[in-house]
Amino acid sequence: MSNSESSPLAIEVRGLSKTYKNSVKALDGLNLIVPSGSIFALLGPNGAGKSTTIKILTTLCRPDSGEARVAGIDVLREPQRVRRAIGCVAQKSGVDESCTGRENLTLQGQLHHLHGADLKQRVETLLSRFSLINAASRLASTYSGGMKRRLDIAMGLIHRPQVLFLDEPTTGLDPEARVELWEEIGRLSAEGLSILLTTHYLEEADRLAQNVAIIDRGRVVAEGTAESLKGELRGDSVEVELAEAASTEAISAALQNTVVVSDLRVSGKTVYARAEQGATAVPPMLVALEAAGVKVASVKVARPTLDDVYLRHTGKTIQQAEAQVNQ
Amino acid sequence: MNFLSDSWFLTLRVLRHLMRQPIFIALTLIQPIIWLGLYGQLFKRVVELPGFQTSSYISFLTPGVIIMSALFGAGWSGMGIILDLDRGVMDRFLIAPVSRPAIILGRLVYLAIVTLVQSLILFSMGFVLGARFAGGAPGLFVLLVAAISLSIPFGALSLAMALMVRKQESVIGAVNFILLPLTFMSPVFIASPLMPAWMVAAARFNPLNWAVQAGRLALAGNPDWPNILLKLAALWVFGLFAIWLATRAFRAYQRSA
User: Fold this and answer.
1) Do A131 and A148 fall into the same domain?
2) Tell me: the pLDDT tens digits for A17-53?
3) By CA distance, what is B255's nearest residue in A?
4) What residues does A317 pair with on adjacent strands?
5) How large is the average pLDDT for residues B196-223?
6) Cβ of B229: how many Cβ atoms within 10 Å?
7) Do A112 and B257 touch (CB under 8 A)?
8) Is residue A246 part of a domain?
9) Contacts of A86 in chain B (CB under 8 A)
10) ipTM of the shown complex
11) Number of structural domains in chain A
12) Which residue, among A11, A34, A12, has the nearest Cα to A225 in the 3D structure?
């Protein structure tokens, strides 16, 4: 116990690889360092390897190669000790819908070998903390999506874990429930819990996490604080919506010698570019485009976001990556 | 120690499901009640055939239907575990430091309890319909032991199959394609001397036959105890093998995750 508590790292992952039976390469030499007591976000589209990483770290499956430690404990050598140190909220809810909220929590506590008054008190504390006390005696099948997710998190916390895994915690929740959950996750972290969350919502990573790793095809392609990742991008992002689709070549030819923009990319009808000063770059850009006969529908200038970081490191937007996977 | 307490907590969970849906208890009893009430009446005079050593068909049929119901109840065991896999409940258990064999054992203990209650209900029903047994309480006890001893191996096999194929359709298929023939290749409905010779030969290897025989022998006057024990022991050996198979299937499931 003392060994794990003294560990300054919540998670240490080296060279994790995993290929599934259907020869899908889920992880391809993934490295990850998560400091204790912080929120760390794994950002990437579906199919990037986030869920596989969580499955390995929570002892549900084994990698083909590589090493992983959670709370200082080797995941492959001492899975049973890891299980005592972690809580997990999987994408697929683990709530037993044919039981009440209280029964779900109690069983989870019993399986973590809590008992007696300690267990009872812990169950009631968590029920009230997650605003489930009034619904505690109702079957979980009657719960709303947000309530079910809160019960799921309470179940993950019953044994006071050191590291909490949240796999896509806000997927499928309505905006209000999402914001509530973000606040709760923030509070848990403030209490000293280390949290690893996966998300394909850039906004979520930006808002919650101190550190972000961008995953693409089973590898970490960029890592750092949200701010430092955004800082790597010089200047503002400029997005020009065209009336008709155009090629990158045509647009760069049109803009040649007129404005200083970098990272120029065209995807369909949208031109993505970066400029030191977005506001001053836009007027000459529009003039140059008009001179080349390109019709502009709208222009957007923004401070860099994690979206831009993702685009820069993977060459596609998260939505595009998502669409590829779904095909 | 954790192994036993974990198993018990998981048993209670499934029992709770059942108590919440008492309609399922009624549904599982409908079939055996039809066998006892209607089939038993319809074939009442079958005992007049030479070969039957009894004059009461309901007394002959009751232990058979009890054992058959234990078999079918066991066959459905795999359904629940597939639901757990689909709903993420199994992953929840696996992430907790719960004893892995307890996940299998919890379901088997549940099955034993359900089989016991179901057998007692059907026995009372048979009694109401006129079944009487010279073997008395010890006979009933052995019948219950035989029913449970048959349900455990088939429950374990159903779990093993569910963990391997992970489709409810396959469990439904197996129950119909395996358990129904096993039932007819046994003396559940008719005395062995009246069965075709090849079926009698095949029935020697049919665990359902062992359980029915053990139950009927114990319920008769002057039970042949060594023979009864031998049949029960055969069921236990089969049970250990099936449980071993189910834990193997469970490990294979975990590796494939």
Assistant:
1) yes
2) 999 888 888 999 999 999 999 999 998 888 889 999 9
3) A61
4) none
5) 94
6) 12
7) no
8) yes
9) 95
10) 0.88
11) 2
12) A34
Half-sphere exposure of B175 (CA within 13 A, CB side): 21
* Shared-domain flag, residues A129 and A11: yes
Q: What are the tens digits of pLDDT across the range B224-235?
A: 999 999 999 999
Whether A52 and A187 share a structural domain: yes
Residue A319 lies in a domain: no
Domain boundary, last residue among A214, A230, A246:
A230
Residue A153 belongs to some domain of the structure: yes
d(CA A130, nearest CA chain B) in Å: 19
Provide the residue ranges of all domains of chain B, joining segments of one domain with +. Answer: 2-256
Residues A169 and A294 in one domain: no
* Whether A197 and A290 share a structural domain: no
Using a CB–CB cutoff of 8 Å, tell me whether B79 touches chain A. Answer: no
Token digits of residue B14: 């499934």
Q: Is residue A198 part of a domain?
A: yes
Q: Mean per-residue pLDDT for B126-142? A: 95
The answer to whether A277 and A235 are in contact (CB under 8 A) is yes
Which residues does B87 contact at the CB level (< 8 Å), separation at least 6?
A92, A93, A94, A96, A97
Q: Which amino acid is at B242?
A: A
CB of B251 within 8 Å of a chain A CB? The answer is: no
Domain shared by A246 and A203, yes or no:
no
Task: From chain A, pick out residues whose CB is under 8 angstroms from the CB of B93.
Answer: 111
Q: Which residues contact A116 (CB under 8 A, 6 or more apart)?
A: none
Q: Kind of pairing, strands A211-216 and A219-225?
A: antiparallel
Residue A299, classed as helix, strand or coil, is strand
Interface test with B, best of A107, A148, A153 (most B CBs within 10 A): A107
- Say what the pTM is: 0.84
Residue A215 pairs in a beta bridge with A220
Query: Containing domain of residue A239, as a range?
Result: 234-303
**A306-322 pLDDT tens trace:** 777 787 788 777 777 77
Q: Is A59–B9 a contact, with Cβ atoms under 8 angstroms apart?
A: no
Is the domain of A188 the same as that of A209?
yes
Residues 90-129 of B with CB under 8 A from A: 91-98
Show the CA angle centred on residue B154, arms to residues B148 and B157, nearest 5°: 140
Judge if A224 and A245 occupy the same domain.
no
